[in-house]
Design goal:
The chain is built from 6 helices and 2 strands. With 168 residues, the protein is mainly alpha-helical. The protein has one domain. A two-stranded antiparallel sheet has the order 1-2. A hairpin with a 2-residue loop joins β1 and β2. α1 packs antiparallel against α2 and α2 packs parallel to α6.
Length: 168
């Protein structure tokens, strides 16, 4: 029962991540093209498009990091691991993932505090939309990455052999 609920939750998170990532990317492309057309043909522009695009780049960066973490395609420093004896490679990968998880959880905590301060004293991102709404993706992204690094550390120890392609 727990595994079934976990699988459904994982699939839901995957769908939400992918949907938000694609819709944010599509919005940036669409708004930029619209802005170019308005400026070149009508000598008019929408003042809120560029600040929105800047915030959407932040959203895309963290959603992309979350997707890369899910797929095990994130940046990793595993050069040393290849030169270690086979018996130490699993431990080295586990320690790297645990350390990465600790750093991500720490950054998530710091970013959540900063976002909360911005929530208490909101600055506008554009128009009347507060900046803290977009900032929510920063602690969320770090938290999800930390969770995935921790999950990867556990799954490495459950497997008999560690992957050679860097995926977990």
């Amino acid at each position: 029962m727990f595994l079934r609920a976990y699988k459904i939750a994982s699939q839901s998170v995957r769908f939400i991540e992918t949907s938000l990532l694609l819709s944010s990317l599509f919005a940036i492309i669409l708004l930029t093209v619209l802005q170019i057309i308005l400026r070149n043909f009508f000598s008019f522009s929408l003042s809120w498009v560029e600040p929105l695009n800047q915030h959407l780049v932040l959203v895309i960066a963290f959603l992309g990091a979350m997707v890369a973490g899910r797929k095990g395609e994130h940046i990793s420093f595993d050069v040393v691991r290849h030169y270690l004896p086979v018996r130490f490679q699993k431990s080295f990968s586990t320690m790297g993932n645990v350390l990465s998880a600790i750093v991500c959880f720490y950054l998530a905590d710091l970013c959540a505090r900063l976002t909360f301060l911005d929530y208490l004293d909101p600055l506008p991102a554009f128009g009347k939309v507060p900046q803290w709404i977009f900032e929510l993706f920063i602690p969320l992204g770090f938290f999800v990455l930390g969770y995935r690094f921790l999950k990867s550390a556990v799954s490495i120890n459950l497997r008999s052999k560690i992957p050679t392609d860097g995926s977990s």
